[in-house]
Amino acid sequence: MKSTQYFLLILGNQLECILSGIMSVNGKKVLHMDRNPYYGGESASITPLEDLYKRFKIPGAPPATMGRGRDWNVDLIPKFLMANGQVVKMLLFTKVTRYLDFKVTEGRFVYKRGKIYKVPSTEAEALASSLMGLFRKRRFRKFLIYVADFDEKDPRTFEGIDPKKTSMREVCKKFDSGQDVIDFTGHALALYRTDDYLDQPCCETIKRIKLYSESLARYGKSPYLYPLYGLGGLPQGFARLSAIYGGTYMLNKPIEEVIQNGKVIGVKSEGEIARCKQLICDPSYVKDQVEKVGQVIRVICILSHPIKNTDAANSCQIIIAQNQVNRKSDIYLCKYITIASTTVETKEPEKEIRPALELLEPTEQKFVSISDHLVPKDLGTESQIFISHTYDALTLRRPEMKRKKNDIYGED
Predict the structure, then answer these.
(1) Which family does it belong to (predicted)?
(2) Of the listed ranges 36-45, 166-175, 350-359, the one predicted with least confidence
């Protein structure tokens, strides 16, 4: 590797692995280095189960009732894939799907006034659902028809709404949506973590709901997909793809220094320098070029029973909307190995996530982590160092449709 010149050098986690494969397919000379002995960085799949106990410094070994440790793959940061989203499209385009098997998530649920309710998947389920009253259901159906017909490029579909100026709050008022419907639409369909979207132009929210509906239409049961053997399969699949097209991947490679002089020059590792024109990395490799904007608490819970009121679903997502528990941001759960996650808002994060953990009791074992939410200080256009965000609390690849400030990837 001594003084080797690359077009692109990549350091980091799962998202960076995906990019290394895509860039290799596009003919770029790519080197991907990772200080860890496993794929995926902070979003890795941990196996065997004994390694998870060691990682969280849990004394002793897993009980015999949990079976063989090597049969477990535990994702540290679970992220569902929207069936019609950009990540799935990339998987199909690059044919990485040949290395992976996927499963459709069985159920989607929301928390309302202390109880769990199924998110309706069909019109019949919507009419039978107790999430909203009869008249609200009719108005909600009218709104969904509007979303389905909406075309950003065709003003005839706007029905008097200016998608670039009209706020989502005004749209909700136009369709006479009550607070329950607003919570359900904004948090379970558009997948916002807070209510800030209500005072922003409605175009983005409408496109999110449209993506949700299109993803649901692909498989009928759920809009979400998940790798059958965990998210660790994604970086491994793209590493294989990168190798086929001439890319180089190095695990367990210590990174001593990112060398730059106004612009990135290369990366020093074990006394050697890999030179590059561009660098893509996660925040842990360039801590002086990122800033902390919050924290995320995640609790991995191993269960021996299905969660109540989820129809004994083998896999599901539960969203606890912020208004239901007097918070500023939502709480998310996914199971059978259940990971509860939310944005930290106080100095006692474990108390914040308690409403979610109460839905899971009893638990066999809990693993608690609190991580900083880091974002790049700039876009990297001058230094040619492009830094991703650390992962947020959302249990889905973020469905943003457009590039935002300090966000170089759009959909995570």
Answers:
(1) Belongs to the Rab GDI family.
(2) 36-45
Mean pLDDT of the chain: 89
Question: How far does CA 50 lie from the centroid of its chain?
Answer: 26
- Which amino acid, one-letter code, is at 85? G
Is the previous residue joined to 235 through a cis bond, with omega within 30 degrees of 0? no
The CATH H-level superfamily of 122-220 is Guanine Nucleotide Dissociation Inhibitor, domain 1 (1.10.405.10)
Q: What is the pLDDT of residues 93-136, one digit of tens each?
A: 888 999 899 999 988 899 988 889 988 766 677 777 888 887 88
Residue 7, pLDDT above cutoff 90: no
Each domain of the chain, given as residue ranges in start order, spans 122-220
pTM: 0.88
CB 7 within 8 A of CB 1: no
With a cut of 60, say whether residue 384 has pLDDT above it: yes
Which pair of tokens denotes residue 56? Answer: 């969280």
Q: Has residue 341 got a pLDDT over 70? A: yes
Going by C-alpha positions, the residue among 3, 7, 2, 16 that lies closest to residue 391 is 16
Whole-angstrom distance, CA of residue 197 vs CA of residue 185: 11
30-33 and 4-11 strand pairing: parallel
Phi, psi of 208 (to 5 degrees): -65, -45
Q: Which residues lie closer than 8 Å to 121 by C-beta, 6 or more apart?
A: 108, 216, 220, 221, 222
**How many other CB atoms are found less than 10 A from the CB of residue 120?**
19
The Cα-based distances of 412 to 14, 67, 180 in angstroms read: 10, 34, 29
In 255-311, the DSSP E strands lie at: 257-261, 263-269, 272-281, 290-302
Sheet holding 224-227, edge to edge: 81-82, 224-227, 102-104
